[in-house]
Amino acid sequence: MQTTYIETQQISFQDFKNQILDDYRLGRISREMSYLGRREVLTGKAKFGIFGDGKELPQLAMAKVFRNGDFRSGYYRDQTFALAADALTVESFFAQLYADTSVEREPASAGRQMNGHFATRSLNEDGSWKNLMEQKNISSDISPTAGQMPRLLGLAQASKVYKSVKFDGSEKFSNGGNEIAFGTIGDASTAEGHFWETLNAACALQVPMIVSIWDDGYGISVPTKNQRAKADIAEMLSGFQRKDGENQGCEIIQVKAWDYPALLDAYARAEHFARTESIPVVVHVIEVTQPQGHSTSGSHERYKNEDRLSWEADFDGLVKFREWILNYSIEIEGKEEIIASAEELDAIDDEAKKIVKAGQKNAWENYQKTITDLIQSVLPLVENLKGQNAEIEGYIGQFKKLVSKAKKDIFHLTRKALLATRGTSSAERTQLMQKYNEVFEVEKDNYSSHLYSQSQWKAENIKEIKPVFSESSEEVDGRVVVRNNFDKIFEKYPETLVFGEDAGNIGDVNQGLEGMQEKYGEVRVADTGIREATILGQGIGMAMRGLRPIAEIQYLDYILYCLQGMSDDLATVQYRTKGGQKAPVIIRTRGHRLEGVWHSGSPMAGILNLSKGILVLVPRNLTKAAGFYNTMLQSDDPAVIVECLNGYRLKEKQPDNLGEFTVPVGKIEVTKEGKDVTLVTYGSTWRIVMDAAEELEKLGISAEVIDVQSLIPFDLTNEIAESVKKTNRLVVIDEDVEGGTSAFILQQILEKQKAFRYLDSDPLTIAANDHRPAYASDGDYFSKPSSDDMVERIYAMFNETNPQKYPAIF
Questions:
Q1: What is the DSSP string of 142-191?
Q2: Which of 127, 542, 624, 764 fits a disulfide with 154 by CB distance 3.0 to 4.6 angstroms?
Q3: Judging by beta carbons within 10 Å of its beta carbon (0-12, 13-18, 19+), is residue 205 exposed, middle or buried?
Q4: Strands 525-527 and 548-552, how do they pair?
Q5: 500 — alpha (psi -120 to 50), left (phi > 0) or beta?
Q6: What is the separation, in whole angstroms, between the first and last Cα of the chain?
């Protein structure tokens, strides 16, 4: 068991003095970073700045109770904390401000995120896990207000899980569950639903979580009184305060941002509650100042009156800290001891300015050298082409006149030169072309890599193992296949757990987890409240700590509640850290061909467009679904798997190798061969397409039916194009709205696979109406493609080309 800050603070006065002065020094360094950072933006050397000035003291106090193995999920003003946790240096701070694409110089995001977005690297270069217990951990920040909160819940819950779950390598992620997840949020952002949903869930689950609320009285320019029902968030949260003897609720501590000793005490108590009793704690830090306003986009003088600005100057945390230090004295063995004189503090102030200026200078020079090296490698080659086209000299002249040069400027010059010399052949042009290709590959990696895993465990690398059937293989309901496969999964992978609404006690609403909680316990097979955003957040956070969570969203329509987290957080984890972090969570849901307005949505196009970075798998039956679970649990990519709701009671032959067989991602399956037309579909619509194909056979049309199985990635070997090459006709059939998933599929086939070359007829999409279906089977029939719709519209393609052989139906 780890000790807490309260238990370790028996120190000498000299050590106490050194700690105080170290805190003051770090606070001054952080403040000077904010000041200089703002100047760098306003002088045009950086694009945008948002800084943590005013929050130095509470973050120093929080850092004292932040230990190896702990995690933070915060927002973009925690630079002092990041400095104190050794997750940030002065140079890496400015490297991020300049958007330096070097992972070594800017390890948080390699220039992909604006400043103030912090992260530690959880992964080795090959994508394998580091030992997270040997470092202090920061999960990669995101900008959407309160968007960091759902993930925080999962980071905290992982500690609770690790109290009972062990597996080979689990010591890299936890020491018996003694870690705390720290969250930070601006006061105004507590008006967001994600804050309340997360805190509510944490209080119900009783997880070790400390949430710090930085309260400066405003949300940009809007006063707190206009943000919530009550200006005081601690008062609003009073109903969450736990009662003695109850395992519900949280502790609430309110403290002033400028009161250094009170802050130390507040965070010491918070840690003690969270680490020793696994109780969530809210630390409401009030009277926070913001010396430079919200960001470089505006001035706070526009909305703060003179009295407020004067108060902020007087109650600036570092000003009050300095006063406290200078007023502190204690008698030890008859001698008065002080911490520091005014002259000593002045010297620290001067030292802080020099440290920050030196760090900024190095960061700027390193960043500029990257651009200078690029110019020196490319510009001479462009100049070699001056004699081949008169326009090139003008382009070069314009480039040289630029006061500040960025990578885009040298690429623009190069491409203009290549455009101007198109159609010519020379050694000089060939040399420039080769250099352009070389440097473009570097920048492609800098700006576009790691949307998906690039490790040996990426989903595309998982080999196919076909299901094995024998004479003894039973015909069972589809739900039994997936249930028995989950049984094998939980047995094989002790780090795997599943949670969702009704997933535990009753074994999910369709009995796909029947008996699993009884067998594997409430920790690994758990019910949750009705709160989709934080169900996803549980998955993200636990996956970031080495567990393999399956987050169940009961119906596909309900995934809209967690789409923000999927899009802004989960889908971008690997990308925004350039392979520094991963969260291989599996989102389990069910849908397709449902009935009724609120249970019949097919938001696949929204998922596809908003969640690039997450695999989207659409199995046509439960055996295929089981195979995808087996695949993804060997992969480190996140995925959403959409089970067919109307397949749970349909009979399927159960494979003999449950838990072992896999379905490859990005691999289509031809489920019926044909020679006249290629029909492409997925999910439950596949069954209807197969029925239509049989009807078309009777009408003399031989249809080839393809189940795409995987929307992201899509048909990696271009097999659909080969089918179209044979049939010369293409129909995409989908239950999504017009221009939805069918448009995506069509673009992939016609543009990427270039199957347009083989078409003898216009490509056809058969999609649902733009509204959701009314209730009952008639609603589905009249709103989504029916077998009759498919037969008639496909038949019409042939009527158009050969009306004699295929006379019109209507």
A1: --STTTTHHHHHHHHHHHHHHTT---TTGGGT-STT---EEEEEEGGGGG
A2: 542
A3: buried
A4: unpaired
A5: left
A6: 78
> Which DSSP string corresponds to 10-27?
---HHHHHHHHHHHHHHH
Distance of CA 554 to the CA centre of its chain: 21
Question: In which region does residue 495 sit, left (phi positive, over 0), alpha (psi from -120 to 50) or beta (all else)?
Answer: alpha
Higher pLDDT: 333 or 67? It is 67
Q: Alpha-carbon distance 145 to 147, whole Å?
A: 5
- Asked if 1 contacts 177 with a C-beta cutoff of 8 angstroms, the reply is no
> What does the DSSP assignment read for 503-523?
SSTTSSTTSTTTTHHHHH-TT
- Report DSSP state, residue 300: G
Gyration radius of the chain's alpha carbons:
30
* Residue 89, helix vs strand vs coil: coil
SS3 call for 454: coil
Closest CA to 63 of 72, 54, 50, 52: 72
Strands 651-653 and 475-477: antiparallel
List the one residue out of 594, 601, 646, 598 whose CA is nearest residue 619.
646
Can you tell me the distance from the alpha carbon of 748 to that of 495, in angstroms, rounded to the nearest whole number? 36
Q: 711 in helix, strand or coil?
A: strand
* CATH homologous superfamily, domain 13-340: Thiamin diphosphate (ThDP)-binding fold, Pyr/PP domains (3.40.50.970)
The helix/strand/coil state of 591 is strand
Of 321, 341, 183, the residue nearest 262 (C-alpha): 321
d(CA 646, CA 61): 55
Which tokens belong to 643? 């089970």
Q: Tens digit of pLDDT for each residue in 451-461?
A: 999 999 999 99
Architecture of domain 459-653: 3-Layer(aba) Sandwich (3.40)
**What pLDDT, in 10s, does the model give residues 106-130?**
999 999 999 999 999 999 999 999 9
Q: Cβ–Cβ contacts within 10 Å for residue 580, how many?
A: 24
Q: Please, where are the H alpha helices in 206-259?
A: 233-236
Average pLDDT along the chain: 96
Q: What percent of the chain has pLDDT over 90?
A: 91
Q: Are 553 and 562 in contact (CB under 8 A)?
A: yes
Task: Count the neighbouring beta carbons within 10 Å of the beta carbon of residue 771.
Answer: 10
Estimate to the nearest angstrom the gap between the alpha carbon of 624 and the chain centroid.
Answer: 27
Q: Are strands 615-617 and 710-712 parallel, antiparallel or unpaired?
A: antiparallel
Domain 671-801: give its CATH architecture. Answer: 3-Layer(aba) Sandwich (3.40)
d(CA 482, CA 589): 13
- Asked if 13-340 and 459-653 have one fold, the answer is yes
Q: What is the DSSP letter of 421?
A: T
Helix, strand, or coil (residue 694): helix
Largest CA distance in the chain: 115
> What is the arithmetic mean of pLDDT over 82-103?
98
**CA pair distance 516, 694, nearest whole angstrom:** 40
pTM, whole model, 2 decimals?
A: 0.96
Sorted by sequence, the CB contacts under 8 Å of residue 82 that are 6+ apart come out as 88, 118, 138
Of 262, 139, 152, the residue nearest 210 (C-alpha): 152
Residue 527: in which H helix or E strand, if any? strand 525-527
Q: Six-digit token pair at 789?
A: 């719709």
Classified as helix, coil or strand, 742 is helix
As annotated, the active-site residues are 599
Q: Where along the chain do its domains lie? A: 13-340, 369-448, 459-653, 671-801
Peptide bond before residue 713 is cis, with ω within 30 degrees of 0: yes
Q: CB–CB of 615/579 below 8 Å?
A: no
